[in-house]
Amino acid sequence: MNLPPKATDVPRIVITREALRDGSPMAGIRARAAAGLPVRSEAEFDASLDAVLVGHDPREDVSLFGYGSLMWNPAITT
User: What's the CA gap between 58 and 64, in Å, rounded?
Assistant: First the structure.
């Protein structure tokens, strides 16, 4: 039986602005993803963002909504 690793066996992913800029958190997630688990590529993330922002005036603000632990994003500055 192939059991998933215990949380203590998996290296911790630290999310900082620098890490988000260099892509290391997603690289770590992709490297540890279970076989067959779909993880979006950078191109898919970019296409998703483009689809959300299509028609948005870049001179206008963008509203973000976050809930619970998803609210904090170190790449967003105020």
Answer: 15
